[in-house]
Amino acid sequence: MAEIQLGVIEARYADMIWEHEPVTSSELVKMTAVEFDWKRTTAHNVLRRLIDKGLFQNKNGVVTSVISRDEFYSMRSKKYVEDTFDGSLPAFIAAFTQNAKLTADEAEAIRKIIDQAEEK
To answer: H/E element holding 63?
Structure first.
């Protein structure tokens, strides 16, 4: 799947949709008026861009995701590790923890994630 780039506002709008889906486009207009002070046309234009990028669909005025929030952020995380750490997850973890200690709970959570990934 092609990389999906989102600007800051697009990402906030996408998060709003994921949080409330299924949501009508009319409800989104109301929410964006409050959250972003947008007019109806702006809400629809940004929604159209998100649909064109393949994140959402609008069927009969009801907006739902094509790609879930978890899938989207997983793709972004993988791309970041590929681009920044040459695809090396250990190099990423080493950089992430270089100046910070993990709590016992965090270390245990990471061990569980690794164990589950190994089982697949």
So the answer is: strand 62-65
